[in-house]
Amino acid sequence: MKSGKFWAWVVFIVGAAYFFIPLMATVEFSLRMRRGVHSFDAYQIVLGDARFQSTFLYSVIAAIFTIILGILIVVPAAYWIRLRLPQLRPIVEFITLLPLVIPAIVIVFGYIRMYGSNSPLPFLGSNMGANALLVIGYATLSLPYMYRAVDTGLRTIDVRTLTEAAQILGAGWSTIIGRVILPNVLIAVLSGAFLTFAIVIGEFTMASLLNRPAFGPYLQNIGANRAYEPAALAIIAFAITWGCMSLIQILSRFAPKSANRPN
Amino acid sequence: MTDLTLSNQSLATRPAPPNEATAFRLPTQWIGVAPFFIFALMFLILPTIYLVVGAFQTGDGRFTLDNILQLVSDPSISASYWVSIKISFWSSIIGAFAGLAIAIAIVRGGLPSWTRSATLTFSGVASNFAGLPLAFAFLATLGRVGIVTTLLRDVLNINIYAMGFNFLTTSGLIAVYLFFQIPLMVVIIVPAIDGLKKEWGEAAATLGATQSQYWRMVVIPVIWPSFLGTVILLFANAFGAIATAYAFAGPALNIVPIKLYSQINGDVLHNPQLGYAIAFGMIVITGLANVFYIWFRTRSERWLK
Questions:
Q1: Could you tell me the pTM of the whole model?
Q2: Quick one: pLDDT at residue B91?
Q3: How many CB atoms are located within 10 Å of the residue A120 CB?
């Protein structure tokens, strides 16, 4: 057992080194812009860049719409499958896994060919339509995470009893979903939402191919033309992702313990 | 008792009092899942089918196999498939073993509990930290003026670039891809290792098994289906990844996603039919991987309940 613990430490430390050296190096590199001394010049330039602000704002707004769209699609479906149509579960699980398997670039290529300006549904004929299509694409990419998060949340509450109790008290379907089910799975939905946010913020392929002024294409552009700013941007992006993940961790601590398995 | 009657199946399927609403029973059954299925059909399934069908058509809609044959006959396209498969294969195999080792170390290695939560949080971050920021991080580390590069050169007098190191080689990209492959493996495999019941170890010990017998005859047979399943998921993950590689080399790098990207943007050859065929090839490869994944998953779920 003693040697087991030794090797466990070796594995842990080697792994930690592999992951931390590039991060430390990036931090150090991002501070090197002014010759000879460490400074926050690169961060100042990046944060002060008008294109940084506008593309970042664009991606944040896209992420918010993606989360709303994802909730509207996933929550009713996951709820209904638990309540009435458990036989559809394998099919829905299979569909929600597809975006992990079909590469994003293939999905967006399909959009470009199917929803071009000459098609019956010309999403790409207008700016707003293209924005909408980007949000739709992001919602597709986040399906696996959103569905799993919501389904896990629903597992911890007694969907059927809550629904019947609400119905006995005279609630309609929108009241049941909006005021009974959603508040109960809110924390699960939020953890799916933060994961979606982390995915959307730096996404490059879809935004670039749909020609949207998002943060990902901006990152690519800076990366190709500058030396120190990309490192600063990488640290900022990493901090955002880290923030999202920490929020998920904190939220999961507040998640209601299962009504069926009170442990 | 009340609980039993409330969750009674026949009551639940007929919740509304028998009024005029019963006429609409069929639509209400489907109304909750309809948005999901319409969305999935319009924005996931139909676009994919559109590309697959297009791969077998000429520009004016006649059936042909020329596009598919071009994947094989065009040496730069078949080479890009080969490079992508190699990168995905090795990064998923190495990533899977490294991730498994880390997962076993933090779950079973007797390390303090902070290592587990720190590793899991970090893995959640790093597996989503793919793309452009990842490329920037590696350029800052091992680029020509990167910190590790200059340290090696100034302190140890080793010039890794003179030794033939380059990000744009297959092995260079594998090393970078591992940065998101290993954490993804950790995230997926930790629950499987958690699922190994303590009683099995105790039972094995009671029956006189040695530690190596326990691993060989209990742990590995239980873990391997989910292990193989995850390897395949990692493969698909690497196969579709584009942003990191694009940040290193732009459109010049010869891997499949970048080939397709250039094809869509029209800055190499503008031939949508060939684009369909390239996309079809990607779907076939990741689709085959997924068939195996589902097969291994159903096998692993037999054990890990």
A1: 0.82
A2: 93
A3: 6
